[in-house]
Structure formats: C-alpha cells, structure tokens
Amino acid sequence: MKKSRVIISSLCAVSLVSLSACVTDPNTGEKKVSRTAIGAGGGALAGLLLGGLIGGSTGRIVGAGIGGIAGAAVGYTMDKQIKELKEQTAGSGVDVTPVDGGQAILVNLPEGVTFDVGSYTLKPEFRATLDKVAESLKQYPDSLIDVYGHTDSTGSDAYNQTLSENRARTVANYLSVQGVSSARVRSQGFGETMPVADNATDEGRRKNRRVEIKIVPVTQDDVARARAGQ
Which domain holds residue 160? Predict the structure, then answer.
C-alpha cells in the first residue's frame, strides 16, 4: 500500500503528468492519477474495455442514445458513483469496487442476500437494495451495464449454467422494470467457470455463488467512435 502511494505521488510530481491529471478520490481523500490520464494516449485501454462488453459496444451505445461523459470528468464521475453506491448499499452484503484498472465499477451481489439456494427468484427483502442500485444507474445514464451470473461447482455443468443465466437475467430484467433503459443492459451466465474462491470449502462456494453488475462508463469519444462505426 505504501509503495503504491509513493509511486502515485511521484507520478503527480513529475513533468510528464500534468497537474490536471492528479485528482482527489472522494472515497479516501487521497491524491491519485486520474482515470482520464491513465486512458490518455490513443484510448487503447478504453477500446479494449468496451470491446469486452456483452455483444460489443457500438450498437449498444447507439441504441441506448447515450450522450457520453466528457473525458476530463470520467474519473470524478466514477468515484462519485462508487462512493454513493457504497453508502446506499451499506450493511446489505453488497460489495462495490473499481475494476479493469479503475475503468469500470463492479457491484457484487452475493447469493445469500439475493437468492435462495437453487432459486432465481429475487428475495423480497433484497429488492429495496436493488432499487437503490437501479436509481444510481438512472442518475448516471452515460454507461453500459453487463450483468453476470456465477455459481459454485455443486451440481452438473448444465444445471449451473442454466441457473447462472436465469439469475443474471432476473437481475437485468428487474433493473429494466425499475426504469433503467433496457438498451443499456445485457446479461450472461458463466456457470461455475469463473470462481473467485476455492470450491472445496463452504466459504469458497458461498463466495462463488454471486451475480455481478458491471458498470462501464461511456465517454463522448466512445460515442463518436460508435456512431462512426455504424
């Protein structure tokens, strides 16, 4: 941790990085290199990220009618959304973290608070929390949203694949019903193929049973490229 802070402080000090590239993270109050600065120099990182979206990015961006975030505001906007999501979901079991080198947001919904074992029906008591996530997605409309379903290794491959797809679809549909544009949202199930913990333990299996909502901000440059590629 100390080493990374020293590196960031050094980057903010040298002439190769402008002063505007250093921002204060509203979550921690610490200085860091902005996401805009990291993505500068041709947009290669953003291109790789958007290319990894379910179904690609071009048609989704155009179909959703996204206007895009000004490049200089991307980092601040993401930090603000992360901070608010953490506050809104505090105590619910939901985990909110930056991913893809700080270029996207991952909202992790653990099975225990989202679904009963073997079910893809949302628990009624969890809907209020998911409502808050939906409100955040509506408040920050310049993003695409992928919903991923995952299971542990218990049961057959086919069963786990179907369950993961159904759970991801349930969450995606719920977000759309709450007013999030369906053009922004796609879902996909990965079954047991992407564990984050050891399936040999109860704790590991619990962590692997999850639905993830990935929020990928779209910049004005992304919009321009998408329209040009129609």
Answer: 54-228
Could you identify the residue written with the tokens 């020293």?
6
Give the separation between CA 101 and CA 93, rounded to whole angstroms: 23
- pLDDT tens column, 131-167: 999 999 999 999 999 999 999 999 999 999 999 999 9
Structure tokens at 147: 């919903």
Record the tokens describing residue 31, joined without a space: 């200085």
CATH number at residue 98: 3.30.1330.60
User: Distance between the two ends of the chain, CA-based, in angstroms?
Assistant: 44
**Residue 47 belongs to a domain:** no
Mean pLDDT for the stretch of residues 4-19 = 38
What contacts 82, CB < 8 A, 6 or more positions away? 27, 96, 97, 98, 105
Q: What pTM was computed for the model? A: 0.81
Residue with tokens 């004005």: 220
pLDDT of residue 156: 96
163 three-class SS: helix
Number of structural domains found in the chain? 1
In a domain, 65, yes or no: yes
pLDDT tens for residues 169-224? 999 999 999 999 999 999 999 999 999 999 999 999 999 999 999 999 999 999 99
pLDDT for residue 9 is more than 50:
no
Q: Which of 61, 50, 46 is nearest to 223 (CA)?
A: 61
Please give the Cα distance from 4 to 149 (Å, whole number): 32
With CA atoms as reference, report the closest residue to 109 among 14, 204, 213. Answer: 213
